[in-house]
Design a protein that fits this description.
The chain is mostly helical. Helices cover 43% and strands 8% of the residues. A 3-stranded parallel β-sheet has the order 1-2-3, sandwiched between helices.
Length: 168
Amino acid sequence: NGNGKTTFFKLLIGQMAAQSGSIEFPYFHQEGELTDWTKIKAMTSYVPQDLLSWRGTLQGNLHLEASNRGLTGKENTWAVEYIIHRLGLLPHLNKQWSDLSGGYKMRFALAKALVWNPKFLVIDEPLANLDVEAQARFLNDIRHMSRNLKNPISVVLSSQHLYEVEAV
């Protein structure tokens, strides 16, 4: 705690500018090119440690996020249905923020971050408020999504649960 993980993540996703040094993303551009933060941000999802509450239903918010990221019509519907089933959110579609447990709030945040198929996912302390079973399920979901052959995703995750993270 207090070692700068969240600050590093904000630098990594372009929410803060570095005072010195540089951050490079070889996957997103050719060697020697300047970092194009607009391009990086368009491919990056960030799940902060402190989740923001929302209004409306879980399903409505997923459709909104997919729409904000350029998915419309059948593509939006398919993406939302896929992520709902993939993360086991079907029983919670019409629930609001206050109706969800801490574990399902985190699963929703992950669903919102992934519904539009980003290339880069940064997650800050996702296991902090989850029980052991929810931690294992969450980490396995991340592992499977990072290894997806059609849409692989790079993941940077911070956690103080070293053994649980190393196990996956």
